[in-house]
Write a structure and sequence with these properties.
With about 525 residues, this protein is α/β, with parallel strands linked by helices. The chain has four domains: about 110 residues, no CATH class; about 90 residues, no CATH class; about 210 residues, 3-Layer(aba) Sandwich (Rossmann fold), CATH 3.40.50.300; about 100 residues, Helicase, Ruva Protein, domain 3 (Orthogonal Bundle), CATH 1.10.8. The chain is built from 21 helices and 17 strands. Strands 4-3-2-1-5 form a five-stranded antiparallel sheet. A five-stranded parallel sheet has the order 9-10-13-8-14, sandwiched between helices. A hairpin with a 4-residue loop joins strand 3 and strand 4. It is globular.
Length: about 525
């Protein structure tokens, strides 16, 4: 079975345009009417009403045909030749394909029919074969405009021409009723196209107060850092000016919340999050991964939706590990590789076998992060600080420090601002356990109550023992979850047993459970 892969473009509430992409091979799921290709991607039919009324820039299928019918249709024994003719026929017919009004009936039109489609041909003008119809008070832009600047130009020119026709779009009139009506049409036109312009941007309005509050309930000890980062990310998503885009660099030891902050931001904003280990990259001419791999991963994290992928939050982690080590030219090559990526470049990436997607990183929200431990160690020794977190948090890192650490000035200048995450104090770690909404203790308490109707009670001695271990290991908040979950593993095993279901009302844990997971107290109902 074959079909045409189509791309849907929602241009207004009334118009959907489909552009053919290529012929694909697969099978139709008869129960749900999905077309499943050889890569196991599934697509809805272009005429499916659920698909038509959903978001824009999606892919679908149309014109399914069996191999036998394909060969018979074009009178050839060569499948390759038949596919070529099939694809050419669809492309040739698809000057435009529209959904009109609310009937959800897809039909194809060529440009000759397009010229006679409108009652007022003088309202049509030559702009990428684009036309509008004012008299029906419905606005149809039957083409794909790829650039928002072109769209703005199109709107401005249309408004000018509309005004030249005395706003009525039909004839001059001194009737107040007709003028009021035409003003209403003009407002509607501006509203529809302004909405359309917004939909073509990846920008979104973010309530920073709400987002900051959400993060501060889950990330402890980093309030000022959260406020700074949220401000930058919110500005990045609001602007369409590439000169205003910032690429923040998060600096701080492992386990202080850098990655977790970004994951929570993506979760709150309902956008895809892609964390990529920067040291796996290789410069041009060297064997290894390149920028295409970052974008390919982001594409799959976005459920293979291009527009959603462009809204991704991309985190280049362990950035500090691509510093120049001696005269290793490969390290410098990686840094040079990232220059264009951070500046903003269009990449043509093969995301599937034979299927390529273009990504523009200009407006993508890209954040970098790394520990830069050696810089802290060197500064601590030079200044004479001790090991206390409060003293370590007074250390500042400049661009000169990062350049000396082994980064070319060009890339350091692109990573701005530098946000230094605080080392977590014992009090911060305690707050994570007792107050944070992502506390492993809180999560287990909720789970035991919901699943087994058992209350989990932890004694202060248990909390202190967990904190002692994390502080001694200097592993930050990341180890809290591992220690707590491991210590409660035997309790979970006991509560899962069928014979114990409904038998207990409370379980109490003390510090002894950290050395022997079978030492705890269960209270019967």
């Amino acid at each position: 079975m074959y079909a045409m892969l189509m791309r849907k473009h929602l241009l207004s509430n009334d118009v959907v345009i489909y552009n053919p992409i290529k012929a694909i091979k697969g099978e139709i799921d008869k129960e749900y009417n999905y077309f499943i290709d050889e890569m196991e991607n599934d697509f809805l039919e272009a005429t499916d009403i659920c698909f038509i009324t959903s978001g824009q820039y999606q892919e679908c299928y149309a014109y399914p045909i069996t191999e036998e019918d394909l060969l018979n249709r074009y009178g050839t024994d060569s499948l390759e030749e038949a596919l070529e003719k099939y694809q050419y026929e669809v492309f040739d017919a698809f000057n435009f394909s529209v959904i009109e009004d609310e009937k959800f009936v897809m039909r194809q039109i060529d440009y000759e029919e397009l010229k006679t489609l409108f009652e007022e041909p003088e309202l049509s003008f030559d702009y990428y074969n684009g036309s509008v119809n004012i008299t029906k008070r419905k606005l149809y832009m039957l083409t794909q405009i790829k650039d928002k600047k072109d769209l703005r130009k199109f709107i401005d020119e249309m408004l000018k021409k509309f005004n030249e026709l005395d706003k009525s779009g039909i004839k001059k009139s001194s009737s107040k009723k007709e003028k009021d009506n035409s003003d209403e049409i003009l407002k509607e036109m501006a509203s529809v196209f302004s909405s359309d312009l917004e939909s073509k941007n990846i920008r979104r309005d973010i309530d920073t107060d709400e987002l900051e509050a959400y993060l501060k309930e889950r990330i402890m000890g980093q309030d000022e850092k959260i406020e700074e980062l949220v401000t930058i990310i919110a500005d990045n998503y609001k602007t369409s000016d590439s000169h205003l885009i910032q690429r923040p660099l998060l600096i701080g030891p492992s386990g202080v919340g850098k990655t977790e902050t970004l994951k929570l931001i993506a979760e709150y904003l309902d956008i895809p999050f892609t964390r990529y280990s920067t040291p796996t990259l290789s410069g041009s001419g060297y064997v290894g991964n390149n920028v295409d791999d970052i974008l390919r991963l982001a594409y799959y994290n976005s459920s293979r939706k291009e527009k959603i992928c462009n809204e991704s939050l991309i985190f280049l982690d362990e950035f500090d590990k691509i510093n120049l080590r001696g005269n290793d030219v490969s390290d410098k090559a990686v840094q040079n590789l990232l220059l264009n990526f951070l500046d903003g470049t269009v990449y043509d990436v093969e995301v599937n076998s034979g299927y390529r997607v273009q990504f523009d990183t200009t407006l993508m929200c890209i954040v970098l992060g790394g520990a830069f431990e050696d810089i802290f160690k060197k500064k601590k020794k030079k200044i004479g600080f001790g090991d206390s977190e409060s003293e370590l948090n007074k250390i500042t890192i400049t661009d000169a420090d990062i350049i000396e650490y082994g980064f070319i000035p060009e890339i350091v200048g692109r990573c701005n601002p530098k946000i230094l995450y605080n080392n977590l104090t014992r009090e911060d770690l305690k707050n994570i356990l007792l107050k944070g909404k992502l506390s492993p203790i809180y999560l287990k308490q909720q789970f035991y109550k919901e699943v087994y109707d058992v209350d989990l009670k932890v004694l202060d001695t248990y909390i202190d023992a967990v904190l002692d271990r994390v502080v001694d290991n200097n592993t930050g908040a990341r180890e809290l979850k591992q220690i707590v979950f491991s210590s409660l593993n035997d309790i979970s095993h006991t509560l899962q047993s069928k014979k114990n279901r409904g038998k207990y009302s409370e379980v109490i844990v003390d510090k002894e459970i950290l050395s022997d997971s079978k030492v705890y107290t269960l209270k019967k109902r």
